[in-house]
Amino acid sequence: MSILSRSFIDWLTKYANQLDQSNQYSDELFTRLANDGVFKVGVPVELGGNGGDYHDVIAIIEELASYSLTAGFITWGHRTLIQNLIESTNPLPREKWLPVLLAGQLSGGTGLSNAVKFLSGIEELQVKIIEKNGKFYLQGKLPWITNVSKRGFITIFAAEYADNRQSPVIIALPHDATGVTRSVELELVGLQGSNTVALLLENVALNPAWIIADNASDYLAQIRPAFLSFQCAMAFGLAKRSLAEVEQSLSGNRSILEKEWQAQSEQLQKLRQSLQTGLAQIDYFVQQPQALFQIRNDIIEVASQSVLLELQASGGRGYLKKGGSNFIRRWREAAFLPVVTPSVVQLKTILQQH
């Protein structure tokens, strides 16, 4: 049963296209998500949440993405940051920021894309920790972070010591730290209402209390199942919605598409079950990350094929601006999924190496 209120679903349905193409309603979207308790899903009750587990988080992100991938995307970023604070052995960031993150008073931007690529040997870390006169400072740039509101935010990312004195670390950084600069929103083809920006860090004095993990590689391996499975939920939602649109046309002159619709529907269910089974086994995806990588790529393929099938089912109506269809928005949303870090190409490269 959905936790989303009828009023929020109606609002999201009404403004989904605007959320995709402008920043006008981005802060209102975030506030409405918080007011409906979305960010508390899967968070232990003793920490201020509503209880539940990863499956509940996946379900709510999937539902949101079926209405608006922008809503699903910022929920992924925010909820993944929250999960990182929960998993950390350092209680200080959790005690200080979790209540305001759950309430939606601050937004949470997960800047771990660079770190995930680093863990997979694809990219170097882009933030350095530099020592000056016995003190440590953060220097670098995070070129793409989602859900970073002008009203205030927390972000997490990996940083490495410039002199390699110890392993890279994971840091939770508040928006009001001196030396943090938020760019204007990046101009995206879609999901423009996701508050996606770049952050520049210039001589930011490092507070040791911000370090949520002393060993980035070990920590990222543990948190990666949440990071990627929550991403899978976005593709689940988009595929589910497109296939529902196709189903409505099968009784008419598009019945020729039924076999393809059935194949994609079955594959969607198969991948959903594979993800649930893997998550149900303790540390399975930690020890077998390639299995999760394959699921992630396969569900994006299903989403892409489902949207293409929707185009065939809608015909020319789907290409009309005022044709009564939201197909074009879903087409843009589907085009976004393969480039979300780690991208489909990056995961294919890793899978080929193994």
TrEMBL record:
Instruction: Tell me the ranges covered by the Acyl-CoA dehydrogenase/oxidase N-terminal domain, including all copies.
Output: 12-104
* Any one GO MF annotation of this record: acyl-CoA dehydrogenase activity
Q: Which Gene3D superfamilies match?
A: Acyl-CoA dehydrogenase/oxidase, N-terminal domain, Butyryl-CoA Dehydrogenase, subunit A, domain 2
Task: Write one Pfam family the protein is assigned to.
Answer: Acyl-CoA_dh_N
Official protein name in the record: Alkylation response protein AidB-like acyl-CoA dehydrogenase
Organism, by scientific name, is: Nicoletella semolina
